[in-house]
Amino acid sequence: MPGGSTEVRRRMSLKLCVVGCGHFARIFAGAMQAIAGEVDLSFASRDAQRAAEYAAAFNGKASFGSYEAAAADSDVEAMYLCTPHHLHGEHVALAAAAGKHILVEKPIARTMEEARLIVQTANQAGVTLMVAENYRFMAVVRLAKKLIDGGTLGGLRLIQLQEEADFRPSQWRASRDLNGGGVLIDGGIHKIDILLYLAGRPRDVYATALPQVLDDSEGEDGVVIVTHSKSGAVGLINHSWAKVHGREPKWVSVSGTKARISFDLAGTHVTIDDGLEERTLEAPGDRRGIIPMVQEFRDSIRQGRDPEITGSVGMEDLEITLKAYESMGSGQRVVLDP
């Protein structure tokens, strides 16, 4: 590439501090190595040694032994809040007060009241707030959206999202209060966001918890959700942390009046079946969706526009999630938009 292009990338580089050096922060930082010229990482932790280790492992420009030190550093332009759910409000307030743009992990908050305060805080500070919902940016999800919007499937009839993972929540994730719930608000909210992205806002929600397997988790470890869109299309989510047998794919199937598409959320292609033939399309782009998510965050800052997943989008995901919890508690269907 011409030298000018390298210079443009350098000027556009996002100086992003990863706040909270846990398991997913490691996955995130590893993915960022592919676009090292576009994102300059630093790391902040309550444990200075841990932050320094992450910086050494992932070419970090700096490390901080406190979140406050990271917020006060003039070389930090934005903060990626990869911290427990119950701390999102506190950490958004810290970043916003320092004038840092904010990429906050999903869910945006545990309650709608917390979420509204987070959005208000960012707005009043004049900083960009984006929810880190990488599933929406997965290559297979983007291709599915293109096919649906292009009319390949005809009218939507049924969207199914399935995941059964062998996961044992610990520490704050095992606490219903600190996590905001169980598997649904933690991992299932990814599926809710995909459902809204592909089919739009549902008009009603029904949810039920599966029989509990993980006795050391206060929150539910499995949930089934049924929704109806305004057009009548049915959404079906089965998301569970507890399973008996080996590794299962995380799959999505979307049926329409003309055809059906299916894909693995960890995969690289989408299968189309119209009843006459089955064909496979490669899904170009990032399999995990992390890189385009960060690029969208950076571009929204540089271009002075809202990011694709604003705080309002994160609030809608949370609203549907909380309505599902309401349904689980009452045993009744909850109507969102009469």
Quick summary of this structure?
The chain has eleven helices and 15 strands. The chain has 338 residues and is an alpha/beta fold.
Short descriptors:
about 350 residues, alpha/beta, nine-stranded mixed sheet
How does this model look, in words?
By secondary structure, the protein is of the alpha/beta class. Helices cover 37% and strands 24% of the residues. The protein has eleven helices and 15 strands. Helix 3 links the parallel strand 2 and strand 3. Helix 5 packs parallel to helix 6, helix 6 runs antiparallel to helix 11 and helix 9 packs across helix 11. It is globular and about 60 Å long. The N and C termini lie far apart (55 Å). The relative contact order is 0.15.
Secondary structure blueprint with pairings:
Blueprint: H1 3-12, E1 14-19, H2 23-32, E2 39-44, H3 48-57, E3 63-64, H4 67-72, E4 78-81, H5 88-97, E5 101-105, H6 112-125, E6 129-132, H7 139-149, E7 156-164, H8 176-179, H9 183-199, E8 202-209, E9 222-229, E10 234-240, E11 251-256, E12 260-264, E13 269-273, E14 278-282, H10 290-303, H11 311-330, E15 334-335
Parallel strand pairs: 1-2, 1-4, 2-3, 4-5, 5-6, 7-10
Antiparallel strand pairs: 7-11, 8-9, 8-15, 9-10, 11-12, 12-13, 13-14
